[in-house]
Amino acid sequence: MASSGNSPFRVTSIAAGEAHTLLLTEDGRVYSWGRGTLGRLGLGSEQDQLFPAQIKFGSQDSVRIVEIAAGAYHSLALADGYYSVIPCLLNKFLELHPPDSSTSLIEEAEAKPPLKIVSVKAGGMMSLSIDNLGALWMWGNCPNQSKDGIFSIVSNFTPTPVWDFHGHIVVKVACGNEHIIALVSVGESYNGEQDDLICYSWGNNNHGQLGLGDEENRPNPEIVKTFDQNSHWSIYEIACGAFHTALLTHRKKRPNDTLELESVCWTFGHGDNGQLGHGTIQSTSIPEPVQELPQFVNLVSVDCGLFHTCVVSSDGDVWSWGMEKGLGLYPDARVVGEYSSDALSPLAVSNPCEDKFLEPVQVACGAAHTVIVAQEGYKVWSLGRGRSGVLGNGKVMDCYTSTLVLWPPLVEDFNIKQEEPSSSREQEKGKKKTEGVTENI
């Protein structure tokens, strides 16, 4: 691994479950910390972990992880060069076909290149993956694909393809406790243009988290009309909380547009803790923009915890709203009623060392904690609930302001000469001049 030229110190991705966090480095290593029960940390025990600890995937020289995902109590890791997160099951794909499919459909599938998983996601107690042909797979506690319109949650013990999207390309997917949001190509091919994507949703809709204008459950995907083919908006990021959804969009460019258009964050679903950021505790079944975010900003990352939401701009500004425990706010930050201190509108998250989280990479939200990766991936901050070591700073206390995660960890794997990435970047610049919540939160 050391000969690959990739940095073991640079973080490329993070994922947060209800009470644990995963971290992926540029050279394909994965670290975890937080609550260890049910084996979600992948460290060989159920003990809590207060600092980032490396997960071993057999011989580390032969396994390079390229993507990670965290559900409520489980974790996923996708290895480069492997056909699946569980290869023995994915090889069965060509034996499967829709009940009403013809022989020509099977022959068409057999003529395509070998299948390989390219993306994984997790949420609640379900897992999702997208393969290199753009097909979506799901397993765990998932919505049952039904022709009679009857909704139910079933336990799929093996990955099952979502046949509704046959003939289209699934580009991105996110899921909450029991609902799924997917960005799917308009036609049978996809050239990378955001304008060519349509938003679909299905699953449990008891709070309007599907964005379909009602609270009726859906066993099969339906188009979110606010973002259909005729919409003025292009979606580029999606995220799901337990019972709410957040999207990032740009307005579709017109022929004469030359400048990058500002971002808009939309939310819908459960709003009792202010997680929609609309200034109220009302739920909504129609996507609505978060009005109090600054205009003319470029939002690069969004994520949802159980009951809070967080976004990051390209300039390094971070805003969060929703349940106070997940925000890491002081108890009197925003008082609503006698006891509540939830934030009903976006509040800026401060960096104790600088004004902003410069060179941001990503934000991830757990049940009641938030993790921010910035400085091109060389610094990691956390805030919120601290029990079980979920903040990765060696403590079990709540933090009301962002605190540095111990990164890189002080273990033998990192007793190699560090290239001082931050100083080298400075030199280079110089040259250039609930319902469903089962764990206490």
Walk me through the structure.
This protein has 441 residues and is mainly β. The chain is 6% helix and 37% strand. It has four helices and 26 strands. It has helices at 87-90, 103-110, 324-327, 421-432; strands at 11-16, 20-25, 30-34, 49-54, 65-70, 75-79, 117-123, 126-131, 136-143, 153-161, 170-175, 179-185, 197-203, 218-223, 233-240, 244-251, 263-269, 284-289, 299-304, 308-313, 318-322, 343-348, 362-365, 369-374, 379-384, 399-404. The strands form seven sheets. A four-stranded antiparallel sheet has the order 1-2-3-4, with no helix packed on it. A four-stranded antiparallel sheet has the order 7-8-9-10, with no helix packed on it. Strand 2 (20-25) and strand 3 form a beta hairpin. It is globular. Mean pLDDT is 84; it is low at 86-106, 334-339 and 415-436. Residues 417-441 are annotated as: Disordered. This is RCC1-like domain-containing protein. Pfam families: RCC1, WD40_RLD.
Summarize the structure.
This protein is mainly beta. The protein has helices spanning 87-90, 103-110, 324-327, 421-432; strands at 11-16, 20-25, 30-34, 49-54, 65-70, 75-79, 117-123, 126-131, 136-143, 153-161, 170-175, 179-185, 197-203, 218-223, 233-240, 244-251, 263-269, 284-289, 299-304, 308-313, 318-322, 343-348, 362-365, 369-374, 379-384, 399-404. The two termini are 38 Å apart.
Secondary-structure map with pairings?
Elements: E1 11-16, E2 20-25, E3 30-34, E4 49-54, E5 65-70, E6 75-79, H1 87-90, H2 103-110, E7 117-123, E8 126-131, E9 136-143, E10 153-161, E11 170-175, E12 179-185, E13 197-203, E14 218-223, E15 233-240, E16 244-251, E17 263-269, E18 284-289, E19 299-304, E20 308-313, E21 318-322, H3 324-327, E22 343-348, E23 362-365, E24 369-374, E25 379-384, E26 399-404, H4 421-432
Antiparallel strand pairs: 1-2, 2-3, 3-4, 5-6, 7-8, 8-9, 9-10, 11-12, 12-13, 13-14, 15-16, 16-17, 17-18, 19-20, 20-21, 21-22, 23-24, 24-25, 25-26
